[in-house]
Specification:
With 245 residues, the protein is mainly beta. It is 6% helix and 33% strand.
Length: 245
């Protein structure tokens, strides 16, 4: 007697679904949903071919009832140059319904202070220090130290006092920690509606922060253009991290 084909015993719709992005399979089932990245690993738009093969998730509330999330319909909101997400093991979630996704302001370097987020040479950076540089005979200039929010590397730049920069006014959204997925270098957060999304662990400061990411810990995500560019931990946690060093 010939053996029945596997598909007749286990319908394709019920076969285990895996993250085989290159084969175009469906996203993993469950509350956290992700869709395959529309960028081919060989696409010239992709800055990192291997990283762009990971699915870039986007969540939307399930209007059919309950708190489950499902993949958003339509094309994904993908920016190949965006905030270094393709360089991370875990892709950044997107928040397409963010009402303050594109808030910019042009400001003079004399008005920039520590903590401001600005664009320097096409890079989104957070200012860590502002100083005035006086020269003997030449005009005074402004020195800025910053952290590149895509690479988390420190940098410096000098500008004339009349220089203007593009400042970003990110939307801030509060989440609570659900758990840490160490295998995928990710932290699972839930919003006020208990919709969950994965955030790269690197946004939190790396593996050294894991012991402090307790369930229900409240954190604030700064969103720009629908993508998280910074995670702010509670002051008490920041103080503990400093004392640990």
């Amino acid at each position: 007697m010939a053996a029945a084909p596997v598909s007749s015993i286990f319908p394709v719709s019920r076969l285990p679904q895996t993250r085989q992005v290159l084969s175009g399979m469906l996203p993993l089932p469950g509350k956290r949903s992700a869709l395959p990245s529309p960028l081919s690993p060989l696409s010239p738009l992709s800055p990192l071919s291997l990283a762009s093969s990971f699915p870039l998730g986007r969540l939307r509330r399930d209007t059919s009832g309950g708190n489950a999330c499902r993949p958003a319909e339509g094309p994904l909101h993908v920016r190949p140059e965006s905030i270094g997400c393709f360089a991370r093991k875990t892709p950044c979630p997107t928040f397409p319904h963010s009402q303050q996704a594109r808030l910019f302001a042009t400001v003079g370097v004399g008005d920039i202070r520590q903590g401001h987020i600005v664009v320097i040479d096409g890079k989104t950076v957070e200012v860590t220090e502002w100083r005035q540089i006086k020269s003997g005979r030449g005009a005074a200039s402004i020195g800025i130290s910053y952290i590149d929010l895509a690479t988390f590397k420190a940098g410096e730049a000098n500008f004339s006092v009349n220089k203007k920069l593009e400042a970003i006014q990110p939307e801030k959204k509060t989440f609570q920690v659900m758990y840490v997925d160490e295998e995928n270098d990710a932290v699972v957060l839930a919003d006020e509606n208990f919709d969950e999304a994965e955030f790269p662990l690197k946004l939190f400061g790396g593996s050294s922060v894991i012991p402090f990411l307790k369930p229900e810990l409240k954190v604030v995500a700064s969103l720009h253009d629908g993508l998280p560019i910074k995670i702010s931990l509670p002051p008490a946690v920041v103080q503990q991290l400093k004392s640990k060093k």
